[in-house]
Amino acid sequence: MLISETFYSVQGEGSLVGVPSVFVRTSGCNLRCTWCDTPYASWKPEGTEMSMQEIMAIVQREPTRFVVVTGGEPMVAKGMPELLARLRAAGKHITIETAGTIAPEGVACDLASISPKLAHSTPSEEKAGKAWAEKHERTRLQPEVLRAWCTAYDYQLKFVVATEADVAEVRAVVDSIGVPVPPEKVLLMPEGITQEALRARQTWLVDVCKRTGWRYSPRLHIDLFGNKRGT
């Protein structure tokens, strides 16, 4: 399996924020978000081929039971069902961080951390090329796939929000899933990879959450470490 990086840190986003976790980041993605903060796992995938045994050895040397499988898009990684089965057999709590564009098909998972991509994620043709810009726009939202994730596992829906205009789009995406979604499972995160950018959006985003009942999610890893790999 092509692995971009592995590291031990605290979860920076979502309902398990602050929990010490081993992160396994696969390399490769079926989207090209214009603001992607891990381009080394998506736009220009890089990494090392690792065996299941090597990955599991890294996971098991740390004292936590929490493992976050992320990307890129981990669901495009060859061998992912086997890795998840091994993590489950080892008694690990498994979070899968996914854009929700590929159906889960029975993979082992304790928390599906789903991040549907809003319209502002689509790259320009100048940046990504015509083929990728069109593929991203065509692929980024798959309501039936989101529904499959939300009905199969405990889940959270994480949205990267750049402007107040995105709020109506978040509502439309949630409604399109077609099953009741408790408001506390909808998490709004400010877009940005610097503390300054996050602070510029956090106040009004908290106000949105207070109006809607949705949950505000910080990006703790940026607050603690900045936009650095391995954190």
UniProtKB/TrEMBL annotation:
<keyword id="KW-0004">4Fe-4S</keyword>
<keyword id="KW-0949">S-adenosyl-L-methionine</keyword>
<feature type="binding site">
    <location>
        <position position="38"/>
    </location>
    <ligand>
        <name>Mg(2+)</name>
    </ligand>
</feature>
<feature type="binding site">
    <location>
        <begin position="35"/>
        <end position="37"/>
    </location>
    <ligand>
        <name>S-adenosyl-L-methionine</name>
    </ligand>
</feature>
<comment type="similarity">
    <text>Belongs to the radical SAM superfamily. 7-carboxy-7-deazaguanine synthase family.</text>
</comment>
<protein>
    <recommendedName>
        <fullName>7-carboxy-7-deazaguanine synthase</fullName>
        <ecNumber>4.3.99.3</ecNumber>
    </recommendedName>
</protein>
<feature type="domain" description="Radical SAM core">
    <location>
        <begin position="16"/>
        <end position="227"/>
    </location>
</feature>
<feature type="binding site">
    <location>
        <position position="25"/>
    </location>
    <ligand>
        <name>substrate</name>
    </ligand>
</feature>
<dbReference type="GO" id="GO:0000287">
    <property type="term" value="F:magnesium ion binding"/>
</dbReference>
<keyword id="KW-0479">Metal-binding</keyword>
<feature type="binding site">
    <location>
        <position position="36"/>
    </location>
    <ligand>
        <name>[4Fe-4S] cluster</name>
    </ligand>
</feature>
<comment type="subunit">
    <text>Homodimer.</text>
</comment>
<keyword id="KW-0408">Iron</keyword>
<dbReference type="InterPro" id="IPR007197">
    <property type="entry name" value="rSAM"/>
</dbReference>
<comment type="function">
    <text>Catalyzes the complex heterocyclic radical-mediated conversion of 6-carboxy-5,6,7,8-tetrahydropterin (CPH4) to 7-carboxy-7-deazaguanine (CDG), a step common to the biosynthetic pathways of all 7-deazapurine-containing compounds.</text>
</comment>
<keyword id="KW-0456">Lyase</keyword>
<dbReference type="GO" id="GO:0016840">
    <property type="term" value="F:carbon-nitrogen lyase activity"/>
</dbReference>
<dbReference type="InterPro" id="IPR058240">
    <property type="entry name" value="rSAM_sf"/>
</dbReference>
<dbReference type="GO" id="GO:1904047">
    <property type="term" value="F:S-adenosyl-L-methionine binding"/>
</dbReference>
<feature type="binding site">
    <location>
        <begin position="10"/>
        <end position="12"/>
    </location>
    <ligand>
        <name>substrate</name>
    </ligand>
</feature>
<feature type="binding site">
    <location>
        <position position="72"/>
    </location>
    <ligand>
        <name>S-adenosyl-L-methionine</name>
    </ligand>
</feature>
<keyword id="KW-0411">Iron-sulfur</keyword>
<dbReference type="InterPro" id="IPR024924">
    <property type="entry name" value="7-CO-7-deazaguanine_synth-like"/>
</dbReference>
<feature type="binding site">
    <location>
        <position position="33"/>
    </location>
    <ligand>
        <name>[4Fe-4S] cluster</name>
    </ligand>
</feature>
<dbReference type="GO" id="GO:0051539">
    <property type="term" value="F:4 iron, 4 sulfur cluster binding"/>
</dbReference>
<dbReference type="GO" id="GO:0008616">
    <property type="term" value="P:tRNA queuosine(34) biosynthetic process"/>
</dbReference>
<feature type="binding site">
    <location>
        <position position="29"/>
    </location>
    <ligand>
        <name>[4Fe-4S] cluster</name>
    </ligand>
</feature>
<dbReference type="InterPro" id="IPR013785">
    <property type="entry name" value="Aldolase_TIM"/>
</dbReference>
<comment type="pathway">
    <text>Purine metabolism; 7-cyano-7-deazaguanine biosynthesis.</text>
</comment>
<keyword id="KW-0460">Magnesium</keyword>
<feature type="binding site">
    <location>
        <position position="70"/>
    </location>
    <ligand>
        <name>substrate</name>
    </ligand>
</feature>
<keyword id="KW-0671">Queuosine biosynthesis</keyword>
<dbReference type="Pfam" id="PF04055">
    <property type="entry name" value="Radical_SAM"/>
</dbReference>
<feature type="binding site">
    <location>
        <begin position="115"/>
        <end position="117"/>
    </location>
    <ligand>
        <name>S-adenosyl-L-methionine</name>
    </ligand>
</feature>
